[in-house]
Amino acid sequence: MKKLLFLSCLLALLLTPALAQEDRWDGADDLPVNPLECPMMEGAMMATADPMATEMAMEMPEYDGGLAVNPADKAGQDIVVVDVPKLVGIGYFAATTLGQQQAAEELGNVTVTTDAPTEANIDDQIAVIDSYITQGVDGILFAANDPVAISPVLTRALEAGIHVVGYDANSTPEARTWFVNQAEFNGIAKAMIDSMATEKGADASFGIVTSTFTTPNQARWIAEMWAYAGKCYPEMTWLETLEAQEDATLSFNQATTLINKYGEDLDGIFGMTSVATPSSADAVTQAGLCGTVAVVGLATPNAMKPYVNDGCVQSVVLWNPIDLGYAAVYVLRAVVDGTLVPGATTVAAGRLGDLQIVNGSEVLLGAPFIFNAANINDFDF
Question: Is residue 327 within 8 Å of 349, Cβ to Cβ?
């Protein structure tokens, strides 16, 4: 009996770490995941695992977006569009706004205005969108703070005959016509996890600073990171995920919390937003841990240049948000003109060329890009 009790206790001790680690996956969603292929063994050529190639090799799902109800026929005519991102006042959405204005100027028949809360608050975002439905516009661009909560007001816009296109952070598919996806979620996940493994090893222990657990793109990235790490780097340890509300001070404090709480057990921090990543780098710098605690994350290059140029940060994963805003305007114009319809496989997007349609109703901007010391000074946004 004593022997059986001893074995039971030993088994419980062996299982506890795995169970505890599963409990730490807050911030992810529960949607199906599709982890890309692992890098090949050292000395062999790395697997390309291009997310665009992966998607195009798969059978195209049926269109699952919504449609504007009896919209005015404005093909080729002037249209008025409002852009409602998560918030204004940060560099990332200033860059998407710049891209939108560039596209509008090129097209010559689009007027686009950005209007959003100064904080990432879904209730305030809904109120802004609702006001433009009442005023009457031809199109709405949005980046959702919450994919479910924003969907009813976007559905009302469609029912009012307003074309709705998302970018950066999606709603439920039926609440908009198309979504411009900056990069496939599994592609971002691979780039993030591979970068951490390169810097700190295949057994790195790390934490995450995100905005909120319900922000759709970040929750999707985290879910795919969990799946990819489990597949390709099973010895990695995910310590904790902390919310920071797109706030620089709170992001700095949360990164500091990870540093103080885990001490020498913390090998790296992932920043999931353009605010969290530079703030985490600042926290590591001020703690005197550059080179000891890696920071890998999503951010605009200008915010990260000081940390990359002084060697504290090696990898910044992103896409060009100027191009993202630019593409969103071209997509909405194509919807109004009737040149982008359900079942299409590509859409023309000005200087970006033809963009691929994936996942039924998403327009893919392209694969993620990694900024580092060799290239970051070539960019200005």
Answer: yes
List the CATH code of the domain at 184-318.
3.40.50.2300
Supply the DSSP symbol for 142. E
What is the value of pTM for the model shown?
Answer: 0.77
Assigned fold of 79-182+320-366:
Rossmann fold (3.40.50)
pLDDT of residue 20: 34
List the domain boundaries for the chain. Answer: 79-182+320-366, 184-318
Residue 369: CB partners within 8 Å, gap ≥ 6? Answer: 317, 318, 319, 320
Instruction: Encode pLDDT of 29-70 as tens digits.
Output: 989 999 999 997 443 333 344 444 444 444 678 999 999 999
Give the Cα-Cα-Cα angle 113, 352, 328 (nearest 5 degrees).
Answer: 30
| DSSP state string for 283-343 | HHHHTT-TTTSEEEEE--HHHHHHHHHTTS--EEEE--HHHHHHHHHHHHHHHHHTSS-TT
Residue 214: which pLDDT band, with cuts at 50, 70 and 90?
confident
d(CA 276, CA 279): 5
d(CA 326, CA 95): 10
Do 236 and 53 contact (CB within 8 A), yes or no? no
Q: For 120-144, how does the pLDDT look when each residue is reduced to its tens digit (9 = 90+)?
A: 999 999 999 999 999 999 999 999 9
